[in-house]
Amino acid sequence: MPVKFVPPSSARAGTRPGGVRVKICGLTRPEHVGAAAEAGAVYGGFVFFPKSPRNVGIDRARELALTAPLGLAKVALTVNADDALLDEITARVPLDMIQLHGAESPERVAAIRARYGLPVMKAVGIAEEADLAALDHYAAVADQLLIDAKPPRDAALPGGNGLAFDWRLIAGKSWQVPWMLAGGLTPDNVAEAVRLTGAAQVDVSSGVESAPGEKDPARVAAFVAAARSDVPVLR
Ligand SMILES: O=C(O)c1ccccc1N[C@@H]1O[C@H](COP(=O)(O)O)[C@@H](O)[C@H]1O
Predict the structure, then answer these.
(1) Within a domain: residue 232?
(2) Which of 91, 117, 170, 229 is deepest in the core (most CB within 10 A)?
């Protein structure tokens, strides 16, 4: 029986005593891991999806994960992965969380959570009001939700497309598990996204890159600073 993931109180309550918690996804080099940690991100994501320009093999992901300092939670992003692939990833890469970014059913999410004993974050694509119902279904089985833009029908990737959805669809809403906002976030729009949605956690990939798969340390730092810009300064 996996241990239920208990997030920090800031993520549970939607309050931000220490600032919004940031995930930088699609790290492909040790410098990216360093830049994310240095900027103050609390999660770093490794993509295991061959079609992505951010794909890392298991060997590279292991090397990257071993360079991550304490305080940067290591997240494996997979898309409709079978047990054989997940067995290999979890056996070789030190991880803190599994992110499911495909069409995994609630039953599959529950099975993965039980099999690996790691917290599981399920991504749900949103384009319109009707898509929100899925969040309730997955909140019953996942440790966290990742609320992303629904990819275009012909997209090669189910995420990492730099597309935002209408944030007003989730403004003021909450679920029974912590959630993270994603999709088209950049250093320029993340503060507004946080203000509008009340997100306590945000996730970014393409918005902090200089080219696909190339994280730009200056953009990473600017993103984290902007995400936390609504934290009141204590004098
Ligand atoms: O980043 C990728 O390459 C990727 C590939 C397959 C599934 C998901 C992927 N990224 C996730 O998508 C969101 C949104 O990305 P973006 O910021 O709009 O580029 C991101 O937070 C990743 O978790």
Answers:
(1) no
(2) 170
The total of structural domains in the chain comes to 1
What is the interface pTM, i.e. ipTM, of the complex? Answer: 0.97
Cβ of residue 206 lying under 6 Å from some atom of ligand 1: yes
User: 41 lies in which domain range?
Assistant: 20-227
Indicate which CATH number applies to the domain containing 49. 3.20.20.70
Query: Is any atom of ligand 1 closer than 6 Å to the C-beta of 161?
Result: yes
SS (H, E, C) the chain: CCCCCCCCHHHHHCCCCCCCEEEEECCCCHHHHHHHHHHCCCEEEEEECCCCCCECCHHHHHHHHHHCCCCCEEEEEECCCCHHHHHHHHHHCCCCEEEECCCCCHHHHHHHHHHHCCCEEEEEEECCHHHHHHHHHHHCCCCEEEEEECCCCCCCCCCCCCCCCCHHHHCCCCCCCCEEECCCCCCCCHHHHHHHHCCCEEEECHHHEEECCEECHHHHHHHHHHHCCCCCCCC
Q: For a pocket test of ligand 1, which of 48, 121, 205, 214 has the largest count of ligand atoms closer than 8 A to its C-beta? A: 205
User: What is the value of pTM for the model shown?
Assistant: 0.91
Active site residue 148: yes
